[in-house]
Each structure stands twice: as C-alpha cells, then as structure tokens.
Model the fold of this input.
Amino acid sequence: MKELLRPPRLRPGDTIGVAALSGPVDPELLRKGCSHLEKMGFAVRPGFNLDLREPLLGLAGSDSERAAAYLDLVQDPDVKAIVFARGGYGIARALPLLDPREIARTPKIHCGFSDVTILSSFLLERCGVPSFHGPMVAADLGRGLDGLSARFFPSMLAGQGPAGVFLDGEEADVLCDGSSGPHRATGRLVGGCLSLLAASVGTPFEYDYRGAILFFEDIGEEAYRIDRMLGTLVDAGRFAKLRGILIGSLSRVTFSGIEDPDRLRAVLRDRLAPLGVPVVAGLPVGHRGPNVTLPVGARATWDGIARTLSFEEEIVL
Done:
C-alpha cells in the first residue's frame, strides 16, 4: 500500500466547504445542515454552484461549473475540509475535469457517501488522498444525526473519533466464515455504495481491491440488480484478493417489490461465499439508520471474535 497524503485534521473554528458535484440542493435541508455545522463551532463556505441547475440532467451546474466550484474549495487556503451537500448522479461526469496533481498538492479532508463513492476512489487511487465515508450536509446533517453517527462525526475528521466500530451480537450477522475462519482480517479499508463500485469497473477511477477489506451499502434496488453488481465485480476479478467484506445497510432492496431479508441474505452468501473470505453483515453505514464515519484508505482490522472493525491508523495529521 503506497503512503497516504494525509490532510491536516479538523480543528475548532475551521472553515468547512460545502460542495455539490452532483445535483442541486434542497435549500431548507442545506440551511439546517449548515446551521448544524455552525453549532458544532465551524465556519461554513458553500460552493458557488449549490443552487444552479443545468437543463439536460438537472445537475447543479454544467460539468465544468461543478468541477470549478469544487476546485475553488480545494484551492481556498481557508477551507480545511470539504463535506458534500448530497449524493446523486453526476459526480463521475466531472472527474475527467479534475487534475489529480492539483488535489494532491494541498490534500484536504473530504466527507460524503452514496455517489461520492466514485470521488473517494478517485482521490485514493489517483491522488493518494484518503477520505471519509460519512454524513453529508443537506442529507444526514440537515435531518439531524442519530446518537451513534454523532459519536463519529465530526470527531473522526478531527482525529479524535472512536478507534473502531463494534457490532454487538444482534448486529453482526456472519454470512461466511472464510477459508481461514471468521476471526481476523487486516487490509486497507475501501468501499462505499455498491452501484458506484460496479459502475466504476474498467474506469481510471476504481479502487485497487488487492489485499483490502471492502465495505458496501446501497438503497432502493431489486435484489437481482444487487446480485448483478456483485457478479460484475467478482467476474471482473476485482474481489479475487480481498481480505474480508463488511456489508452495511441494504435499504429497500426487494424481490419484485417485496422485502425479504432472509432471502437477500441467502443471495449475498451464494454470491460471496466462493471468495473464501469472512463476510459479515450489520455494519452501521448507509442511506438509512446509523451512518458512522469510516476512514477510507486506512489500514483496518476485522476481528470476528471481538466483533470489531478497528482502525489501525489515522488518515489525518
């Protein structure tokens, strides 16, 4: 694993930039989310494109406008962290307009999830910059964080968060033991929204999965599409050298419109058991329920006996 370009940690009074690389933002949720950050003691600088809307796909400005607004936050010396306003389609369209060398020159904290997954893989693999899979301004923060998520945000961005995630007996659902048993797996932590992981196969922006611990989550898919996404990643050889898999929330995943958790569990096990690595469901990340902040790119260890995902290093200085 190459050395990470760790950004400076977030400190009280720092300025947080709010970026929109996908769609426009709900004004009321944005206001509430920014107010939440201000109450935490941070200044807020919104990107200039948050209320733009381009005519073709309804995104928050053209590809060049979205990229320019994001880079404006990257280049601003007063902005110490970039937290995304929302997910949604459009981020991948802007990536070819970003210069990895420019981002690597001044590495900054990034935090978001959902479609931000594709930016996280771009940052890690093309720029060498780790990021956080965690709450977004006009989503989680705009609606208020649950108690578990609040333990991790913003403390993880400040390098003062929990050293890992504990899954109690009810949460940890061991789908597969792995060929060497379920007890321990260590590797670089990568992942995000499954649909984005599958869509990135063959692009210059996808993760390097070799020796990694993968986490994934998704929402609002038919089960056969979840199976197809996993099949794409497996058949393309992307999961061949994983050390372990942790599954977060799979909200509103249905079989012909009907949720069936036991059947979904069987589908996941059928697809992932042949990999021969531990597979555990119940990680508290995703679009619904708790969404704890995870350090993407950090060396991490899954301990199947203690039921912990521990972070072996900080990704901030």
About this structure: The first helix runs from residue 27 to 39. The two ends are 18 Å apart (CA to CA). The chain has a mean pLDDT of 95. Residues 164-311 form a domain with the Glucose Oxidase; domain 1 fold (CATH 3.50.30.60).
